[in-house]
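Sequence in, structure out.
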Amino acid sequence: MITLMIVHEVDDVAHWLASPKREELFGPRGIKTRTFRDPQGSNRIGLIVETPDLETWHEVLQTDEGLEAMKHDGVRPDTILELVEG
């Protein structure tokens, strides 16, 4: 397993937090996520991601299903910052 920290902005934090799309997309692929929000109220959010490998993570984000999930959740792709543990 590889652990990632992902930070990005979304259109609506409450909508993003409540969305079932993450689990629908990632769960069947063995990817686990923990969500975080900015306590100052910005549209910046974070994820701790545990994924089998980087290839799986990147591949799922580039599928039609992954792109649609990001669009549904209001993810602003140009703001994504991905950090790998270690």
